[in-house]
């Protein structure tokens, strides 16, 4: 959040060129792919084409959680035999540590802290029951208390002091970063490694062995589409994702006296266990960064530029104060949002079209900061033919096997119907005067609607 020094953009592509690999999009997926390609084969000629400047998309403007999981991983790993499943889970849980290893070895300045996460039952009692169910599920699926552990209220309060706590699950498998700093550090590092970056170079067409801009083309053995929410511009290559919006606010830097009241001393991330998740972290410059909710626009239209309305800030501020009433007098100094990609069934994918030399990855469903690191490693290993452990994870697919989203207006109606049911559940449960029949009805409806998203 500290003001970052302006970056001089890399020059745009001017004319035709060739490379071994051309990557389209300089978010985390594109930058991690470039980084691991150069690690695995330093002599590879890698070009990155970015429509704006690196980090313009979700990667430069997210909540900074580096999560050691993949959205929808239960379904993804369900059919595997136990030994392979355990190996895949170990790979996923290791993502924050892998990011930490690169951050340390490359000296990337990005406020990395591996403080774990507190998933909190924090606004109404039903959250405790749902969280305990989730914990039982984790434990029944091969995780131990070292992975996910229940904290009673007194234990939670030693780490985080919420207005109305019911308990929490602590997991060590989340780290936090300052996303814009990580993008910049990676951008600089891949350039040092010899990657040719062209900014302000929007790609109009991706096709067999080439990426075309208005001012030139790059021909390459491999084309990597690293566009997540922006994939709609390349229908046919990676159109399996829809763009949804997510929004965040941040306070002014808080004095130590307030942090003494709140906690979060060791870089822990936190979230509140409702279906419409609220989450956050304490930034390195001592602000509370708080993300909550988002939206979907008809036909998956992107929202850009993204300036929050006063009502959007006010909603998030209200939710924040429900958890942290001690912040009532504190100023909200920042609010921002971004577009992220969601694949049908919340199934992030690495898509391999070997015949045309086109690869893509994305659809991380709001969990792309860590997943993009895994995607970068996977794409690099596929291109270089490196026998990397990460290739065991069964998220590779081919374009013909992609699960498509429903056509409009079904998609818009469905998405907003589901979100409304979640919102209604949240409001009913958060009102302690709601009758018990209404509480049950709201939960049943939301549960059913949740099932439709899977
Ligand atoms: C507000 C918000 C909060 C989030 N919080 C978290 C979090 O805490 N933890 C987490 O794990 N995930 C989070 N996410 C999701 C995560 O940020 C994304 O999944 C991840 O950054 C996606 O990275 P990417 O590189 O695939 O895509 P992006 O970062 O979106 O990068 C795509 C790039 O492609 C460029 N581009 C677009 N079109 C073209 C074109 N035609 N030619 C060339 N370039 C093009 C864009 O400018 C952009 O730079 C959040 C997202 C948002 C929006």
From TrEMBL:
Enzyme Commission (EC) number: 1.-.-.-
Cited Gene3D superfamilies: D-Amino Acid Oxidase, subunit A, domain 2, FAD/NAD(P)-binding domain
GO MF terms held by the record: oxidoreductase activity
The reply on keyword Oxidoreductase is yes
Q: Which InterPro entries match?
A: FAD-dep_OxRdtase, FAD/NAD-bd_sf
> Keywords on this record?
Oxidoreductase
User: What SUPFAM superfamilies does UniProt report for this protein, alphabetically?
Assistant: FAD/NAD(P)-binding domain (SSF51905)
Q: Where is the FAD dependent oxidoreductase domain?
A: 20-382
In the UniProt record, does the keyword Oxidoreductase occur?
yes
The organism's superkingdom is given as: Bacteria
Known Pfam families for this protein?
DAO
Protein's UniProt name = FAD-binding oxidoreductase
Species this chain originates from: Vogesella oryzagri
Task: Cite the source lineage.
Answer: Bacteria, Pseudomonadati, Pseudomonadota, Betaproteobacteria, Neisseriales
